[in-house]
Write a structure and sequence with these properties.
With 399 residues, this protein is α+β, with helices and mostly antiparallel strands. Helices cover 63% and strands 10% of the residues. The protein has two domains: 6-221; 234-393, Alpha-Beta Plaits (2-Layer Sandwich), CATH 3.30.70. The chain is built from 13 helices and seven strands. The protein is rod-shaped and about 105 Å long. The protein starts with 5 loop residues before the first helix and ends in a 6-residue tail after the last strand.
Length: 399
């Protein structure tokens, strides 16, 4: 077996060690990521293989070095399968294990039978395993094929041909050649591990950034949306409705405020779980009859608000009627008592603050309660001198 260029093997071992240490040092905070332990195994075992190759030319040591250098593409691939969704990478993980388990006994037989030609077998097996890992990565579905993963696959494809590149440069391999075939493999592994370290850290960083974005989005949702009914809470409704009123022509919106009649009785007699079901039913009935530009909200308790943009009071009463009919239809399908709603409506005045319009709508809602509930009442005029319309029944039996 030819003598390996010690300097090249030492440089390869040092480079592999630095790549492994860098991945460990920079990525220890992300050790909980799926696949991380497999990545650590891949880089550290390959680094150990490079060290063994540089340390001794004895056949048993060389065999162990060859095995450790063979494993890194597949061990890395197994970690990638766990990092991504289970169905993200093509083929099955059992093929990864099978390919590696097949290569090891073949290599052992080659070292036992013809040690001088065994490096050829190892070089061929290493190239095939690199091409297999690269093929799996390149066939990843478009939704999961990130640029870092594609860069790793392209690097593995190039490294698979490292022995062929080294052949003409070194005058051939084996007894008649001047270069040990383990050298280009160790150098290729060092380069591959360096690229893999950058790729894996990039992928983990992207995953962490995505998780942070999703967490911020969930926090914004929790801050803005009512958890029970999935409509904007009071603060978010005020923001959305205020913005709509500032952008729309003056006096072009109707504000509705409504609640569930005798809601306290539902909680007291049937429990809060039934009350929650009733509120969810009312909210879904409201959302069913809204346009994209309308603004719904839950003000608190059983009280809801609805800003209809580009609408008048007659159209708003029609919307209220459709909401009531939806509530009636849904109530019949659930174990809930008959639900009735009371509405207060106002046409938002030009340049009227939202808080003032809400107070006027609340006055109209109070008047609807006074006139017998289960109806809609519109209010005109200002808050100090409201003029209420005659109540209009909305299709449900009187409470």
């Amino acid at each position: 077996m030819p003598t390996a260029p010690l300097d090249a093997l030492q440089v390869a071992a040092a480079t592999a060690g630095v790549a492994a240490a860098s991945l460990t040092g920079f990525g220890w905070r992300h050790a909980g990521q799926r696949g991380w332990r497999w990545w650590m195994a891949a880089v550290w075992l390959a680094a150990l293989g490079s060290v063994l190759a540089a340390a001794s030319a004895q056949v048993p040591v060389r065999f162990l070095a060859e095995v450790l250098l063979l494993q890194w593409p597949l061990t890395l691939l197994i970690g990638l399968r766990r990092f991504h969704a289970r169905d993200a990478l093509p083929l099955h993980a059992s093929l990864d294990f099978g390919a590696l388990l097949l290569a090891v006994p073949v290599l052992a037989a080659a070292f036992a039978a013809t040690p001088a030609q065994a490096p050829w077998v190892a070089a061929t097996a290493g190239s095939l395993l690199l091409l297999y890992a690269a093929t799996v990565a390149l066939r990843t579905p478009a939704g999961h094929a990130t640029p870092p993963l594609q860069a790793l696959a392209a690097t593995q494809c190039l490294l698979a041909f490292a022995p062929l590149v080294a052949w003409p440069l070194g005058g051939g391999f084996g007894p008649i050649g001047s270069i040990d075939p383990l050298v280009p493999r160790a150098v290729a592994a060092a380069l591959g591990l360096t690229v893999a370290a950058f790729v894996l850290l990039t992928m983990v960083g992207q995953r962490t950034e995505q998780q942070l974005r999703e967490s911020r989005q969930r926090l914004r949702t929790l801050a803005n949306m009512d958890a029970l009914t999935q409509v904007p809470n009071r603060r978010h409704f005020n923001d959305l409705a205020g913005l709509a009123l500032r952008n729309d022509p003056p006096g072009s919106a109707v504000l509705l405020m409504f609640d569930v009649d005798h809601f306290k009785g539902i909680n007291d007699s049937l429990g809060h779980a039934a009350g929650d079901r009733a509120l969810t039913l009312v909210a879904s009935s409201m959302l069913e009859h809204l346009r994209a530009e309308d603004v719904p909200g839950r003000l608190g308790g059983d009280e809801f608000a609805l800003l209809l943009r580009g609408a008048g009071v007659p159209a708003a009463i029609g919307v209220a009627g459709r909401i009531v009919h939806a509530v009636q239809r849904r109530t019949a399908l659930q174990q809930l008592p008959r639900l009735t709603l009371s509405f207060g409506l106002v046409q938002v005045l030009a340049n009227e603050p939202l808080d003032d319009a809400l107070r006027r709508a609340d006055q109209a809602l109070f008047e609807a309660k006074r006139q017998g509930r289960n109806c809609a009442v519109a209010a005109e005029g200002d808050e100090a001198h409201p003029v209420f319309s005659e109540s209009q029944r909305l299709g449900l039996a009187a409470a």
